[in-house]
Amino acid sequence: MKNNNTSSVGRFIEEYRSSETLRLHMPGHKGAFGYEDDITEIKGADSLYAANGIIRDAEAAVSKLFGSRRTFFGTEGSSQLIKGMCFLALNHYRLKGGTAEHPVILAARNAHKAFICASMLLGFRIRWMAPENDFSLCRCKITSEDLKKAITECDKADVAAVYVTSPDYLGNLLDIKDLAQTAHEEGLLFLCDNAHGSYLRFAEPSLHPLSLGADMTSDSAHKTLPVLTGGAFLHISENAPKGLEDDARNALLMFGSTSPSYLILRSLSEVPERVKKEDYVRTSKDLAKLRKELESLGYLFYGNEPLKLVFDLRHSALSGEEFGDAMRTHRIECEYSDPDFLVTMWTPFNNFPEDCEKLFKAAKALLPEYKKSSVQKPELSTHLPKVKHQPYEVLYRPHFTMKVTDPALPGHVAADALISCPPAVSPVVAGEIIDENAIKILKYYGFETVEVLR
Ligand SMILES: Cc1ncc(COP(=O)(O)O)c(C=O)c1O
Q: 112 alpha carbon to ligand 1 midpoint, in Å?
């Protein structure tokens, strides 16, 4: 039966299911176990990396919703799209006549592991930006001044793009408008890891990096929209250089499976039907109110992203991890914690006002613990380790494991970006010389071992 309230992909799947066709194709479950909708690229179902049917139509509807020139679906998260986005930037650099064998991408230091992997796989150099202010692993508050300085410090002919992460895991939004303008004045592409910020399109006014000047964004739609885990959008801006999209499907194919999940594709395609701007605006207001109520109890918060409430524990005797454990005793599971912060993520698909009341009640009960003042925490510097090799230069080099407490560790070269997921942001990047400051940071964030080059 035709369901007009669903997307092109949804309609196809429903029609196929109700046609009771004999399934002599993959996947092996044949629609049993409740998996009827999990189909594959059969006739009429289009093909993700050569889309010209129902997937292409669904992408066009999402593109319209986000105001992009083109939007491409991905089923393997921003981890896939970030690599594809970097490939497109390098491709553009070469088409423009760039000749560096290993072009540079200027990047804010709090980049996700996928970006380091992109350097390894695509062979670009990374020039990090880490302005001097107090350190936090997930944050890197660069300004256009920092960007201008970084550009003057490198050979511009080698630079392919600028890459930032906004929002970060702690709910900080960068001034994308200013940063993108600076990049563009210098003739550089501006890329944004917007894994946490798909929903910013539905803020009033839109705070989506695409609306603020980014040329390309990778959105983990699954993090903040009603999309299945893995579902992601690669957006290319109306104002981006023409032709940037021409190789997008190939770029994503290189880093993705040739068997994309139709369950994920369907959920991506249904975003235009399922998402209502007014719901996101109302949820932002509800959370602003909850934040005020918690502040009046004595809690401190961090970041300015509308749908994250990030408890600031830098002055509390409790660490973020301990506060997260305490929340679990009230049957509340939060998104992420580290020594200083506890991150909660919300969308209109929470229950309002019940969920706010539940958090408020738990926070009220935990207040005496939260208020006990902290023992002195170590000062961490944003000073970056010296780079001995670029990540792509160490990819195949033999390595071994060392304890972070080993007195012989300083001076060794990191072999890998450490992954601890979340947040998959590493204190030392492959190819960097591990120094005392890096060791202090590794210990602070609870890393016990590190891979180093032989
Ligand atoms: C800032 C950031 N970028 C990229 C990613 C990767 O996204 P995905 O899990 O969709 O692959 C994450 C995942 O948590 C992230 O936090």
A: 7
